[in-house]
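The record is passed on directly below:
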Amino acid sequence: MVILGIDPGLNATGYGVISTQAGRLQVVDAGAIRPSPRQPLGARLSRLYEALDKIMTAHQPSVAVLEALYTHHEYLTTAALMAHARGAVCLALAHHQVTQVDYLPTRMKKALTGNGSASKEQVARMVGTWLGRDASAWATDTTDALALAIAHAHIAEHSCQQLAGVD
C-alpha cells in the first residue's frame, strides 16, 4: 500500500509518501512545498495544488492522511489561513480520487509513539526509528507528514488484525 501523509500549511505543506510491504515501511518521497509568502493567496494555493497533483500522479497513493482540523480560539486567523491550504489539499485528493483519512494529533502521536501527548522531538525520533533513517535531515513539516502516514499504516494494520481475530 502507498500512503501519503500531508501536513497542510500555507507557508509550508509537508508531505511524506511511504510504502508498506510485509509489515515493512519504506520512504518513497518526502519534502515540503513552500509557496512564496510574497504571492497572493490564490497563487499560493495554486502552487500547493499543482505540487500535490505532481506528487500524486508520480506515486499513485491509495490513501492520504491529514491531521484533523483543530484550533484554539485565540488563533482563529491562523486557522482560517490553514483551512485555505487544507482546502487545496482536499481538492487535489478529490481530483485524484484518493481516499482521505483525518487523525487528531493525539491519535497520531499515540499510534506512533505510544504517548498521545508526545513532543515534536519525540515524534521526529520515532519517525526516524520506524523508517530506519535520521529524521533530523527533514524539516518538521516533513516529519509530521511522515508521522501521519506511519500512524495510518499502524492503525490500518491493527484494524485488519482485529478483524481477523489476531492480537
Summary: The first strand starts at residue 2 and ends at 7. Helices lie at 41-59, 76-95, 105-113, 120-131, 140-164. The first helix runs from residue 41 to 59. The two ends are 21 Å apart (CA to CA).
